[in-house]
Amino acid sequence: QKGDKEAIAAKMKELTMLREAKQPLEYPSCGSVFKRPEGHFVGKLIQDCNLQGTRIGGAEISLKHAGFIINADHATAQDYQELIDLIKETVYAKFNVQLETEVIFLGE
After folding, report:
1. Tens of pLDDT along 78-106?
2. CA distances from 69 to 29, 61, 80, 99 (A)
3. For residues 91 and 48, what is the distance between their CA atoms, to the nearest angstrom?
4. Can you say whether residue 16 is alpha, beta or left, with left for phi > 0 and alpha for psi between -120 and 50 degrees?
């Protein structure tokens, strides 16, 4: 069965626009950093901890979507790791929710 090319193209454009509006695609990032804990939204937990915009080195919690850590200025893997650790510790202390990362660090 063939699809309607125009309808498919329109849907792709719509989804791209939604993604661009909600995700910090204008910066390099490693994508969504944390898995979604059952019953919670990671971005909301991070927002409710007032961490959006927090920066360590060149890594920054996105103001557009708190579930993303962007490379705002030559971030290193260590910058990312320290910011991830800060997020995990803060969210656990405030909400007793253990965040698990989706990203995997390779090497030392």
Report:
1. 999 999 999 999 999 999 999 999 988 88
2. 6, 5, 8, 14
3. 9
4. alpha
Q: What is the 3-state secondary structure (H, E, C) of the chain?
A: CCCCHHHHHHHHHHHHHHHHHHCCCCCCEEEECECCCCCCCHHHHHHHCCCCCCEECCEEECCCCCCEEEECCCCCHHHHHHHHHHHHHHHHHHHCCCCCECCCCCCC
Residue type, position 97, single letter: V
Q: Tell me: the pLDDT tens digits for 48-65? A: 999 999 999 999 999 998
Say what the pTM is: 0.80
